[in-house]
Structure formats: C-alpha cells, structure tokens
Amino acid sequence: MATSAVSGVNSISCTTSISSISSFNNFRSKNPNLLLGKMSFLLYNWRRRSFYVSNVASDQKQKMKDSSSDEGFTLDVFQPDSTSVLSSIKYHAEFTPSFSPEKFELPKAYYATAESVRDMLIINWNATYDLYEKMNAKQAYYLSMEFLQGRALLNAIGNLGLTGPYADALTKLGYSLEDVARQEPDAALGNGGLGRLASCFLDSMATLNYPAWGYGLRYRYGLFKQLITKDGQEEVAENWLEMGNPWEIVRNDISYPVKFYGKVIEGADGRKEWVGGEDITAVAYDIPIPGYKTKTTINLRLWSTKLAAEVFDLRAFNDGDHAKAYEAQKKAEKICYILYPGDDSLEGKTLRLKQQYTLCSASLQDIIARFERRSGNTVNWDQFPEKVAVQMNDTHPTLCIPEILRVLIDVKGLSWKQAWEITRRTVAYTNHTVLPEALEKWSLTLLRELLPRHVEIIAMIDEELLHTIVAEYGTEDLDLLQEKLNQMRILENVEIPSSVLELLIKSEEGKEQAEEQKEEEQEEGKDDSKDEETESVKAETTAEEEETEVKKVEAEDPQAKIERIFGPDPNGQQVVRMANLCVVGGHAVNGVAEIHSEIVKKEVFNEFYELWPEKFQNKTNGVTPRRWLSFCNPELSEIITKWTGSDDWLVNTEKLAELRKFADNEELQSEWRKAKRSNKMKIVSLIKEKTGYVVSPDAMFDVQIKRIHEYKRQLLNIFGIVYRYKKMKEMSPEERKEKFVPRICIFGGKAFATYVQAKRIVKFITDVGATVNHDPEIGDLLKVVFVPDYNVSVAEVLIPGSELSQHISTAGMEASGTSNMKFAMNGCLLIGTLDGANVEIREEVGEDNFFLFGAHAHEIAGLRKERAEGKFVPDPRFEEVKAFVRTGVFGPYNYEELIGSLEGNEGYGRADYFLVGKDFPDYIECQDKVDEAYRDEKKWTKMSILNTAGSSKFSSDRTIHQYARDIWRIQPVELP
C-alpha cells in the first residue's frame, strides 16, 4: 500500500502564517527555497503514484487484478485540508506564473487557485483515462459545436467536496472564495440552451461514472460580448482567453491533419483517394470535467486549428510578400476564431462548413485512433459499434457520417456494405428544433468544392435511401413515390441516380407492356359485328374516347416520362439536407421533450418515422442540480437538505418530491422566503453593477432570459409591459397601487449579429426601460431592465432570486427549453404556453402552480391559415399598444418595421407568424392572475415550494441514464 497522500501533505506545515497579501509577498521573498522544497515534495506526493484501478463489473475484476500485479500502488483517497490547499495555491502563485511576481492581487489569486484545483483534477483524470484504456469499455463521444460551461472554479471544488478547505485557505491569504471565483471569465464556447445542455450532460456523465467524452472547438472569441448602448445591441469580440485558461491542458502530441478542397482520384485497385487542396492541423486542448463525489473525471477535448510549419511559405516571407506568406496561416487559424460566424456571405458559409468538418474530422480521427490502440494487434472493425457511440448534438456534426465512411472505405479498405452497416450502428442524432432554418441545408456546389469526396459518399447514401423508398412504396403510384422522394431525399433537387432511374424505367415499360397486352386481349374478345359498324356510328365517338386517344398519341416514352416526373427543377437550388442525412445515417433519432418528440414523428420527419419507427425516441432534457441549485443557491440548498433529511437529492432529485408534504409548513415557508429575499438582494447588486439602475427588492422579480428570437416572443412580454405602463399612466396613484403589484421586469439574451428583427426587439426593450424607469409617477411600481452580455454566470445570479419566469414561445416551436427547469428547481413560478418541456413541468408541479395561456400546438397551422384568409380580428388592447408605441412615447427610433411584422395577412416578415397578437389578450389576463396570486404571500410561497418539489424529473442525470441505456448502450465504470 502506498503512503497516503494526505499524510504526506499534512506533514508540510508552514512556519509562517500567511493571512494577507503583504505577508504572502514577504514570505515569498524571504523563503523561496523553503517554499520550493515544500511544494516540490507536495507535488511529488500527488503525482508520484502509479494507479491500481479496477472495474465494478465482476467479469473484469480478475483481469484488472492480474494486469495490475506489478504496479504495487492503489489510488488513494486524497482529501486535502486547508493547510495543504494553502501550500498548493502559494506554489502556483510562485512557480506557475501567469502574472508578474511583485503582486498577489485577485486575478493572480484566481489563477493560482484554479491551477491548484486542476492538479487534483489531473490526478483523477489520469486514473479515469487509464481505467478506460485498460478495460476497453464501450465509450460514448458527444460532439457539439457548443459547450456553454460557465465558470469552472466553484463547480470543480464543489464536485470535489473541497469548498471548505479552499474557502479557509483563501481567507488566510486575505481573500474570500466568492471574490476569487468572480475573477474567472465565462468560457465563450457556446450561445444558449444547446451548449448549456451539453455541459450539463458532461457533468452528469462524470457523476454517474459513464465512460464518455465531449468534443468541441476552442473558439478564440466565442460568439461575442454584448454591449447595450443608445443604439441597442452592439457586438465586440469576447476576450475570455486574453489571460489564458488555467483549466485547459494543451496536448501538443495529439494533433490531426484536416483537409479541404482538392480532388478525388481513383487508384488501380479501385480505391478512392482525396488529394491536393488545403491542409491544416487540429491540436487537442483538454479540459477535465469532474463528477460529483466520485473520482471519475472525464474529458472535454477542444480542437484549435493552426498551419503546419512545413506549409508556411517561407520563400514568400523572405521575398517581402508577407501577406502571401501569412495567407494560409490566417485561413487555418480563423476556423476557430468565432462561434457561428455570419453566413450571409459565401465566405461566411464556407467558414461555418470548415468549422463543422474540422470538429468531425479531428474528433473521428482521434476516436478511431483510440479504438485501434485499444484493439491491439488485431483490429476487428465490426466491433467498432460495440466500443464506440457517437452522439451528434443537433445537425452541426452531421459530416461525421460521411467522414466515418470515408475513413473506413478509403483509408481502412472496408467495403461499402460493411462500412455503411458500421456507421449506422455507431451514430445517433439529437434533434433540437422544428424551425426550418435550423434544419441545416448546405449548397451542393459549395459542399462539392470544399469536400469533394464527402459529396460522393453522400450521393451514395442518397442512392441507398432511394432504393429503400422505392422498395417500400413501389412504383404503381408515381405521384406518391415522387412525393416521398421529394420529402425524404438527402440531395434536394438533384437528378436521381442512374440505378434508380433504370429501375423506374423498367417498371414503367413493364406497366405499358401489360397495358398493351390487356388491350389486345380485349380487342380479340370483341364481337365481329363491330367491324360492320357504319361510319356514322364511328363518328359518335365520345369525348372520353377522344381524350384517351389523344393521350395515346401524346404518350411519352417511359424514360422521358420518368425524367419529367422525377427530374429536378431547373430553377431550383441544389442542396444537401443535413437533418435527413442524420436520420438516414444513424440508428437513433431523439427529440428533447415529449411534445417535441411527437412533432418530430408526426411532422418534421413523419415519412422517416413511418419507414423506421424503431429509430425514434424521446429524451426529455435535464439540468444538473449541482450547478443549478446547490452551487448557485446555497441558501435554498441548505433548507432542502434540512427538510428532506439529507443531501441525497443532489444525485437523486426524486428526493425533492418529499418537500410536497411540508409545503404548508409555516417554518419552512419562512425559511424559504428568507432565502429568496437573500437571492433577490444579489440581483439588486447585479443590476446596479451592470446597468446602473437601482431597483427595490420588495417588488416581484419577473425574468425572461434566453436567446433573443421572434419565436421566443420577448416581443409579447414587452408589449404586455407597455400595456401595463399605459394603464398605470391612466390611473391615479391610489388606483395604481390597488391594481398593480410592483414588478421588476428583467430581460437578458443575445440577438445574433445579423438577425435584424431580433436586434430591433433588444432596442425596443431598452427604450421602454429608459422611459419607464425615469417616470416619477410610476416609481418602483414598474422597472424594465435589460442585463447586458447574458451568460451562465449572470444566470446563476438571476435564477435563484427570480419569482416569475416567462417561457412564452409560440406553441410547438420550442423543442424543450432548459432554463424553465432551472427556474422551477429554484422555486420560481412559470408563466408559459404548452410548449417544449413546459408541458411536462406543468404536469409535475401541478396545474394550479403554473400560469398557462395561449394557443395549443395543434391549433397553430389553422390559426396561420385563418390569418392568411383575412379572418383574424385583433384584440382592441393589442391595437391600443401598437398605437401607443407609434406615438413616439419611447423615443424617436422608428419602430414601424417591428410593428409592421405583426400586421397584414401574408408576406415575409409580416402577418404575425409567431401569433403575438393572437395570444396577447390571453397573456395579459393571465398576468392579472399572477398579480392576484403574488398578493397572497403564503399561497405564493407554497406554489414556489411545489415547483421545486415538482422539478425532480428534470435532472440531467436522469436524461443521461436514458441515453446510456437506450442509445449508447454503455455501462458505468467506477474507480475504486
């Protein structure tokens, strides 16, 4: 047995008490050798051990025992105290310098603390990695263009169970843990719910001990930093990497070539080879992801792009043509500059495709290399799906499918049939949207130019699909077949392959021959007397017979007929439907909420569902209760632990349901309100810091924080606020106080830089706020605040203190939502439509504890049709709001385009496609019910408790268990 690392650390005691910045600097200057010696010994004890690791699976125990017999060490349980933590922080402040040595200020304290935590994560990461390698267990790989992580420090030490020791150590250094943690910038690797879900999933994978990794891109600037000025939203580059990232470990020894452009050649053996073009290098950066109360630490591997040294044009540089010399380098590096670069231009579209392929190519090369290494001397490719599961988070990683096929066929020499079977068993697809613009379609011309071999492979997949469709539906009804092909093909508006064309032509020829034979038989059976008919009788041929005769005369030959029916539209664009490729190329397709999954099956992919019903599943999203309740809301978490009897709810959220039996308890309600008040005070401080506004904590905090989009209907919210403000202005002070509950209406979220209408909505919200917040007649009865640069860290402050949260998307358009789960988990009441996860949340928390309004999903198509036919009659209150805005009360900005989108009966950008006007009267009447409920303090508190109790279903742990069981088919692997 190895000497305990804890005992080794505890033997190191500092002879000098360090309780302030000045004493630290003094200690550092006077005792450099002492500090170096102690820290070297500390790190030696942490890092010197080889690890004996064993699997919980019984069939692997003996194998692990045998393989580790020569190692002689076990993985000790290392739980440092504040003294050893203090030594570690001091070591990194001195010997892992990111800052000048003269000062130990907050930024330096943060980096030294983070690097100290990272040391412990690396210990567990190495042990986890070693165990996965030795066991060769099946592993899941989660590919996503976004990972919206938020700050890592508090989450890491919380999962490690070291919050107390780190808080104590930093106090001795003169700082609080909270102040140090606030120095960490949010990692700019995501935008919204898609990326935050991916990060919650990583947390749950590690906590549940599932062998799984995440793969993404290391964006230098992320999406953008949002500024709110007098002109609305402005975007500047996010500088999150400016001071470095202490959590990442660059793996200079792990890099892969990625190719673009070039051409495809065929060798003498018939094997295709992709040659020439533009070559870049993807380098791995690893971020350890710790599980909660487990030694399992999994990996998020991010790719950064650069140019290989041998490709640099040294001749051009020496000749003074520096622009030419740097051209290739800039092309390589810019791939990982920005998350979702604007794609209005050809250059933007090309860059997005390069990003997507870089993620797929580098990740799959890494995955395949790991599979081959674990397989040893004999690689059985048929075992690949038994060892590897690849999950595509939305359509961005779709190129995984042709990339796997390319590697297996062109590089590894497998047949098409074998490679296709392997690929389909390996890959799965999560659909996150029903919006047509988000179901990616890429220009075939652009894709063929950028990835010529992949287009060939996609065409082969499309051909395979066409044969399946023809076999399923037959060729008797060509109109039906054409409809199915148009809806299901991967290559839209592209000529059908010759093999399918020949099949259809032969079928048509067969039908014509059968028809001719039938006519001949009918002719032979006619009575001879008909030959003696007079000319006058022949002249009485009916119109129907004449029409038949004309058809015969004008009949096309079979090939022309088939080409006419199934040929492409010469005026249409040729595109690749990435979502269709995902469905065809994978073994599982899942929606992310019950209602969304039904829409996926019945509408979005109905034809595929009819063909392959076994592929389609539901996996309702979830959020990690560690970050989104325990760490961001410690006051409420302590109360939950007290009343449920333990902190088991952190890994088993079903325990939250036990709060239901205490919902009427006055003691609990008092504690609950106290915690909410404390969290509201944090929001007051945040708003003052971010906007300068001073708001009252006595008002209701009404929050809508999410990506700015027309379907999420921030416009409905702000129109409701405008209506409320107008009514207030029409009343006396006494009437206002009697009628309205004081509210602070808080917005947050980013509008995509090129989404003009969304940016108009941001501008309108800020203009309304500027007017309302400075109106002395209104005072604290109503405030409107837009918190700039919304991110995870802002959400971690806003969500615990919120009292009403708005999830008011047009029914049937939000796939799931996860912020609704976070709000409910923190005891916030929801107002919303029956959309996404709202449906299930309402079922769990109780109908009486959810403020419901609006049209239902099955009504939306009919309501839009009614609008197009001019039958919609807007509510007078809605017209009143629009007229009020047009008076210029909120400033000189011309909002005609914004309001115009809500008017008219048809046309792009008009006709109120998202039904703001339709749902408006129901919405404001529902808000009256909110006011009424809020006035009853006991009732509101009980509803709040029941929301937390009812959120037990919405843990990402539960979701990951379902993925692991139903899609990935992997088992937990736990370090002893």
From TrEMBL:
Q: Which GO terms describe its biological process?
A: glycogen catabolic process
InterPro entries the record matches: Glycg_phsphrylas, Glyco_trans_35, Pyridoxal_P_attach_site
List the residue ranges of the region (Disordered): 510-556
Phylogenetic classification of the source organism: Eukaryota, Viridiplantae, Streptophyta, Embryophyta, Tracheophyta
Required cofactors, per record? pyridoxal 5'-phosphate
Top EC class, one word: transferase
Q: Which GO terms describe its cellular component?
A: amyloplast; chloroplast; cytoplasm
What is any Pfam family matched here? Phosphorylase
Q: At what positions is N6-(pyridoxal phosphate)lysine found?
A: 822
Annotated source species: Nicotiana tabacum (Common tobacco)
The chain's coiled-coil residues are none
Family statement drawn from the similarity comment of this UniProt entry:
Belongs to the glycogen phosphorylase family.
* Name of the encoding gene: LOC107771409
Q: Which CDD domains match?
A: GT35_Glycogen_Phosphorylase (cd04300)
Entry function: Allosteric enzyme that catalyzes the rate-limiting step in glycogen catabolism, the phosphorolytic cleavage of glycogen to produce glucose-1-phosphate, and plays a central role in maintaining cellular and organismal glucose homeostasis. Phosphorylase is an important allosteric enzyme in carbohydrate metabolism. Enzymes from different sources differ in their regulatory mechanisms and in their natural substrates. However, all known phosphorylases share catalytic and structural properties.
- Renumbered to this chain, the Acidic residues biased-composition regions fall at 517-534
Protein's UniProt name: Alpha-1,4 glucan phosphorylase
Q: Which UniProt keywords apply?
A: Allosteric enzyme, Amyloplast, Carbohydrate metabolism, Chloroplast, Glycosyltransferase, Plastid, Pyridoxal phosphate, Transferase, Transit peptide
